[in-house]
Structure to design on (218 residues):
């Protein structure tokens, strides 16, 4: 902040009286880029993406116990992060930080990360190809495909790939998809999305099992 008539580095007394220290003045004078801005700056260059992914892999070591070393979870009810859209991952991280998503373990871990570390982790997981799961029971798959084509594809896309705002659900593990849809249907508050809750409320347990099996095979 530059005020005419004052030397550089000098903090006027009237500003101090209002609680503005040198540190707060410096912070006010600098506009920090948002997570989305940081990601955009990286995505303009293949070299920057590679560097961010390498840094993200190092920082994400604490994620590996649940989500797997390459984003392919070894826990059936934990989501795969491989190939997930980086922008979407950043939004979900922020939701854990500000309380819009509830899970104490994730909330505590993510609050310790800097913005740069969050972006690097998102770039790392998004850069890993997804693994295709084997198809399940043909009859179950047929019913699941019917439900998906009627409802899910509108937001998640014909192949379940999602976008910057909508989750990639293709290749997720069936137990995780069943758990997520059941939580949306229950409206307990652990999963908050009015549209998803409305859709899930129309599904029976059998419907959820069928559509989860189909989505997992995409």
């Amino acid at each position: 902040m530059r005020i005419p008539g004052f030397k550089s580095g000098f903090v006027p007394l009237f500003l101090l009286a209002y609680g503005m220290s040198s540190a707060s003045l410096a912070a006010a004078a600098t506009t920090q880029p948002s997570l989305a801005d940081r990601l955009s700056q990286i995505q303009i260059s293949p070299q920057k993406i590679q560097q961010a992914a390498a840094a993200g892999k190092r920082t994400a070591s604490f994620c590996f116990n649940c989500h797997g070393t390459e984003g392919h979870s070894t826990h059936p009810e934990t989501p795969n992060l491989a190939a997930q859209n980086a922008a979407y991952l950043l939004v979900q991280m922020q939701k854990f930080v500000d309380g819009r998503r509830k899970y104490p373990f994730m909330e505590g871990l993510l609050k310790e990360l800097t913005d740069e570390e969050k972006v690097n982790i998102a770039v790392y997981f998004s850069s890993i190809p997804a693994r295709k799961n084997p198809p399940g029971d043909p009859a179950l798959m047929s019913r699941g495909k019917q439900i998906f084509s009627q409802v899910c594809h509108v937001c998640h896309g014909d192949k379940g790939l999602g976008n910057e705002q909508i989750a990639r659900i293709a290749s997720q593990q069936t137990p995780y998809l069943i758990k997520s849809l059941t939580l949306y249907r229950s409206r307990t508050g652990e999963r908050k999305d009015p549209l998803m809750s409305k859709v899930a409320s129309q599904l029976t347990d059998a419907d959820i099992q069928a559509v989860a099996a189909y989505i997992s095979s995409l």
In short: The two ends are 54 Å apart (CA to CA).
